[in-house]
Amino acid sequence: MFFDSEYERVYTGSFINVQFLQNILQDGGINSITRDDMKSGMAAGFGGGIPDHIQLFVKKSDVEAAVPIIEKSLS
């Protein structure tokens, strides 16, 4: 059974890009969280994930506002 999260992935990329986007979203009043499978795997004692493949998530209720901000910021 899949976990039904209140968050949705809106971007995947480098740590630097994700940090940049988090700051832009925060300035717009949108909170976000990240997921780094590589870092999590290393902390747990096993490898895993893809280097520089950080996922950025926002609440599903914020996706409609976040996506245009992300697209504009990366263009």
UniProtKB/TrEMBL annotation:
Cite the InterPro entries for this sequence: DUF2007
Q: Which residues form the DUF2007 domain?
A: 11-71
Pfam families in alphabetical order: DUF2007 (PF09413)
Record-given protein name: DUF2007 domain-containing protein
Please report the organism this UniProt entry assigns to the protein: Aquimarina litoralis
